[in-house]
Amino acid sequence: MEDAAPQTIYLADYRPFGWIVEEVALTFRLSPDATRVASRIRFAPNPEAPPQEFFLQGEDLRLVSAAIDGRPVQPDVTAKGLTCAVPSGPFLWEAEVEIAPAANTALEGLYMSKGMYCTQCEAEGFRKITFYPDRPDVMAPFKVRIESDLPVLLSNGNPAGQGAGWAEWHDPWPKPAYLFALVAGDLVAHRDSFTTRSGRKVGLAVWVRPGDQDRCAYAMDSLIRSMRWDEEVYGREYDLDIFNIVAVDDFNMGAMENKGLNIFNSKLVLASPETATDDDYARIEAVIAHEYFHNWTGNRITCRDWFQLCLKEGLTVFRDQQFSGDMRSHAVKRIEDVVTLRARQFREDQGPLAHPVRPDSFVEINNFYTATVYEKGAEVIGMLKRLVGDEGYARALDLYFDRHDGDAATIEDWLKVFEDATGRDLSQFKRWYSQAGTPRLKVSDDWKDGSYTLHFRQENPPTPGQPQKDPRVIPIAVGLLNPNGDEVVPTTVLEMTEAEQSFRFEGLATRPIPSILRGFSAPVVLERQVPAQEQAFLLAHDTDPFNRWEAGRALARGEILAMVTEGAAPSPQWLEALAGLALDESLDPAFRALALRLPGEDELAQTLHDRGVTPDPDAIHTARRAAGRALATRLAPQLPGLIAALTDRGPFSPDAAAAGRRALKGAALMLLTRTDGGAAAEAAFAAATNMTDRIAALSALLDSGKGQAELAAFEAQWQDNPLVMDKWFALQIAFAAPAEAAETTERLTAHPRFDWKNPNRFRSVIGALSGNHAGFHRADGAGYRVVADWLLKLDPLNPQTAARMSTAFETWARYDATRQARAKAQLDRILAAPGLSRDLSEMASRLRGAAG
Ligand code: B3K
Ligand code: ZN
Fold first, then answer.
1. 291 is catalytic
2. How far apart are alpha carbons 790 and 763 in whole angstroms?
């Protein structure tokens, strides 16, 4: 367990490590309870560092021996690491430690998953493997020898020899310890190869447990497309002879970009039409690309310290979003990304956990792998690109790779390449990295003598620790439409730099209809009172697909909120506009499916809160369902025809066009099930030949309070496939009535297939309850209690996942006094638990801070 008073680390305290690591050689003798790790590390004094004590991080290690230049030494060992007197010049450090991977339930450092050894070192897991300067600015080439009877022994870099019971690996590229990886197990490979544009033939392998090898083809295909794309779009080639991906079942997050040896959560590798949905396929493609792209943005150029995390994560998310857009549809991808940004990052920015894209302090860095660092970090890069243009961006990136290859860099370095490549001053823009919170952009307009003016005012609300803020640079993409729907001013980027600013458009014949923040050109909340008629006009005519969708979303939000606050009925005009869109065959089915999706209950609650109304989760739930039923009734006559037209008869293909048709078909089936008694969905479930259609049918039935027989059939068919069973667990809780969600969760936690120590299982059950808005925020506090019970149970074993899941509580200050008191009581209960981890205690106290 952790120290009583965990320490806060500050960006301002950064200082370089006193030594350079010239080379690392590690030998692992693997054994579940007593693995021996021998290290030989060449240190030389770092001329750029201030004098300091020689300190190596190390946690949960049993030091067996240590020597300097061959002479035994007795370092001073604490729970955090060791100090030792060292020579003033270069020296060779040798140490041997013992660790117990089988007892490692935190899944950080070296651990075991289903008989296989694997590692997770980012951010600070390497210190659980051996004593080392475990910080990203210490980069070194590694040589690794693994001794074990297991048949497959892998580490970073290129293979350097193997024999019975051993293998050696050399990684020539200097890397920080967080990119170290080791895997040993009984694994089989799905192989392929890729020849880089300069002619290097790279052997590719996706390693899985025997029996899973038939579900690797899509991951491999995604990898090859990523490698080609990074050459074509960023000019970046791969730099080793081989690239390995390993799938593991017990993993705290999605995947990890270890040099030459990516380790993945198996749910982001394994896919077949029978077991994976279209969303799974899209996610696999995106994450395979993300981890591969890290080879340049993260590995070749890494972060000086963990405060710079967005340097690699924001950029790599931005790159994977570009890639998915190129592979699929830019419009659909942008809409999906903004939906996620609002649901996760805006929510974070508006609550007690708000922090800057580059935080300036932390207690536990694992708590800062957040939507703000990742998704807002990517938005900030999107804004930079919009401001400097595509060519400026390309020049800046070339300079970044030229100037910083091999460096551990900072956000200052990153912005400097943009300044040098484009001649722009980015000092004001830098506020996006230091100021937390989502700016609010208020808009008004006027029309006089043929001149049209847009007035903007930005407000930057206070966030924890940041009461005052300065105006930011906001790129606002605007287009103007004529009342007949023609675009009279094509997309123009207005650059707002002041707190209040106006932009005038001359020479227009009639007062235009503005389309503002096209493509969601900045991560802000646009506050403009737009009459429903104008939204409907934009929904029908906007030439910018994002704003077209946005207009529909705003209309839907307005309709449902009027139902909540005024008891209104859904307006026929809205239903007509949505029905028109759903049936418009000139539009991409994926776009139509997105347009049919009503805003979520959490988004509606946030909107009410923003308007100063305390959200009632039950009323929101009821109104949203009534809106869905009204839409179903309006479309009922057309739905069977629409579904039939969208049904593909050929073999399954995971491509975007086919997935888009299935998405619209699934949305249509959900609506139809609300009016046909379930007949169509029951037939669709029975006839489904792929998981997307099967899940769509089951969801439609559960949404209408049916589907018990189908649930049983699904369980009987898939009980031995944990990844598919995760869907089975999650769906029942997601669709449970609010009054039953907590009980359903508790019942499912007693199910024999609920292995709560596995992060995927835990998320599929406890995470699903947090996602059932009205169920989690139930007035009697049962939702809060069940989630808190499980966080407390998981924390001693796996603090990282427990802390991550505690974000369920981040919105509680929005609700009424009774709910607040109940949520607060659970947070207090968590904080009072003896031996609480540093991870969960930091999260719970930040969350608690909101409530007063
Ligand atoms: N870099 C890893 C995330 C590590 C999380 C550590 N708690 C995966 C990624 O972002 O690509
Ligand atoms: Zn990443």
1. yes
2. 11
